[in-house]
Amino acid sequence: EDQKEDLGQEVSKKRPRETPNYFVAIPITDDQVLDKIEDVQELIFTKEPDLLRAFLPVQTMHLTIIVAHLATEEEVKKAVLALKQSKAKVEAILQGKDHIMTFNGIGQFNNQVIYVKMSEEDQKILSRIAEAVEECFIEMNLDISGSKDFKPHLTFLKLSKAPRLKRRGFRKIYSDLYKEYEDSYFGTEVFTQIDLCAMHKKKQESGYYYCECSINVGSSSTEESKEQ
């Protein structure tokens, strides 16, 4: 632990905190979950059309594990390696089983960020997975200082996406805009993949972020490695 702290201090002395430009994410692709999120967005839109700009497109839905500032191509390569190295640790946590994530109910941070909630059990497992990935990035001496305490949440609306709204006095998103769905069941997603995504590169045709690297985890990935 002490060593970790020393490392952190060294890194912070060396460089000022840079704005993250990459993130590691679990993509959410289940149709039931995404359709339900679109339903909520449509409901909010009918009540408050101005919030359209603050919606996150369902094609980009993901759970963020960590954010990173990768300054050079060299660092991007290191991050790819770090993600690949985390695979064994993640597999050890999953123990060859598929982990099914359950999405249920809507939560918010400061009435600025609205997200779909996950069960406590899921949050615990994902926290361990996030730690495993984080360790691999720290071992590579990569800058993940922008990462906050990990709290898995599926964001579908955030005010910071629409700065103009704030200037016009839009400071809060009130829960009566989505109360019909506040306790709704959204569905499940089998956790099979972790991506290293670029924030600023051109998105893929599917609408999802540009991926530098993806690793497969869970039962499907063990079959793959047997084939290899």
TrEMBL record:
Pfam family, one: AKAP7_NLS
Domain spans labelled A-kinase anchor protein 7-like phosphoesterase: 20-216
Keywords tagged on the record: Kinase, Transferase
One GO-annotated biological process of the protein: regulation of protein kinase A signaling
Lineage: superkingdom: Eukaryota
Gene Ontology MF term list: kinase activity; protein kinase A regulatory subunit binding
One term under GO cellular component: cytosol
Any coiled-coil regions, as ranges: none
Listed name of the protein: A-kinase anchor protein 7 isoform gamma
Natural source organism: Phaethon lepturus
Native organism taxonomy: Eukaryota, Metazoa, Chordata, Craniata, Vertebrata
